[in-house]
Model the fold of this input.
Amino acid sequence: MSNAIPLDVVHEVRQACLCLATQRAARTLARRFDRAFQHLGLTNGQFSLMMPLNVPEPVKLGQLATFLAMDRTTLTAALKSLERRGLVKVRVDKNDNRARRLSLTKAGIETLAAAIPIWRAEHAVLEAELSDSNAAKLRALLPTIKGVRRGVGDA
Done:
């Protein structure tokens, strides 16, 4: 059986593909923060989902989905375990029965507060591994990708 795609093309994609490189880095970082948050019963994804909910007014599900670059169905599924654990409350929007508003519960705020020192410590180690200047460059570069949102509700 012969390969339809030459090996040099495979190497080219492996070395040049920004999508592949960021996916691999994201998975590595996700496992790292999953381990760090494990004793709280949180995943890095749950932490990232809960953090933008720590605002004065409940957030629309659609706004959060856009900010997190997730489709609404995937976000709804991810919210179910947090809702069952009593960390997030999902309510019908009083102005639009089709829309859902999300907020942290008291237990959610407490869990998030416990996660922050863990995130800070793990993040400090990560930044030291990258060097402060490389971490800053990466942080500045990633949001320049078209479509990446800086905050909930950003256009």
